[in-house]
Amino acid sequence: MSRDAARDALPVLIARGEGLRYPEPDDAFSPGERYPEYAHAALARAANPVYAALRGMFAAAGLDAERCGTPDWNPLGAFVPRGARVFVLCNFVYHRRPAETQEAFFAKCIHGSVLRALVDYALLAVGPEGRVRFGNAPLQSCDWERVQEETGARRVERFYAEQGLSVEARDLRLLVRPRSGLGRSDAISRRSESAACEIDLAGASLLEEIGAARGRAARFRVCDYDPRRTQGFHSQGRHRYLLHRELLESDVVISLSKLKTHEKVGITCGLKGFVGAVAHKDSLAHHRFGSPAVGGDEYPARHRFLQPLSALHDWVYSREPEAALQPCFESADRILRTLARKSGAVTSGAWWGNDTAWRMALDLARILYHADARGALQPAPQRRHLSLIDGIVAGEGNGPLDPTPVAAGALIFSDDVAAADRVACRLLGFAPERIPLVQQALADPRLGISRFRAGDAIPCLDNGRACDDRALEPCLGRAFRPSEGWLPRLGAG
Fold it and tell me: Residue 431 is part of which domain span?
């Protein structure tokens, strides 16, 4: 799209303010007033600021302006065709830990009230002929039932079931491996491989550019999985990912992500959220083994003394899950890595020098935009993408699993996932050009995932005020504190 055409497209929509907070879970997060287009009998007994904010953003942007204020208003109709199959790709990263406050939990996972408001408008668009599903592939040890209850997503699903509407949650993992507090694996659950679709980006993968260093092949890794499997997915000239067919068979994907920092890629919003489409996590490349001295980016050169610990991790997860004493070895490995982090060392690619994870995330973005239902890449995008970022409670510090909650009071909506992420950078107080995941999403035209380029100003509607992203002030009046490994790159916040 030309720059003139890009300027004429939908601006990135922002709603923010101190009054934007999550409602109580009563009444399945229904709105507190009867809007003309609202299709259900149930109303909440108190105001629902989230529902009102999302509706207000759509109205302020002039979506379906001719019918706004009438029962026929359909603000997402321009993006979501009638009869479409919609998948809402949520950030359900991990269930609530024993010592974790509810506020800290909602700094890492989306809130059911945001899901409910979004799905209501998606249902208006698809009509009775269409369907809406939601979910993702969280960490292998995540308790799916718990995270559904704790986020309020289960209340949302039950509400629609009571209305006779087809809105269903989907756990996209094909391997589930619960863990104890010490990192020991319990019973392993394997699901049908027929749900997975393999896509090989081959030489077109962004990982190909770093596939060899210092005369040796890259040793791609993802923690807590068999390194031989990951290496088998990623080698010179071959870069395979196993995605869940649920996404590839959808007409529209709506990324519902959190506004928070990320230890491997800087921020985690819509682009990083695409990892939630991956059915087998061992097909992901999160970092390369070792320090730059051995062609890796797992930790800086000054921490190369950690290489024996990396080798131990490889050995532990190269063993069969049922092998003798395997739970003990896994617990010991987890304890040693935790002690290393607490001593101030970087582990697991959790720093700004990780040159692998952002490439993997953009590989997935390319696939989800351009792969057809059979997994074959096509020149033109194969489905529409929308992005809604939940920053009402946001996360700073050591995200994505242990962020510090902050009341940012913000929602971001766009029909361009990469543009929404760049706006998110601005609201976090980070320079987008210092975060390769965001910068390269706009700078690399080969990806074909955004109508904008890195040098473009992105038009925004900030609480109804037209501006471009360069004029946005951070939500907190200061920059968010990045994860510890990104402090040298992004500052202390």
Answer: 3-201+243-284+352-490
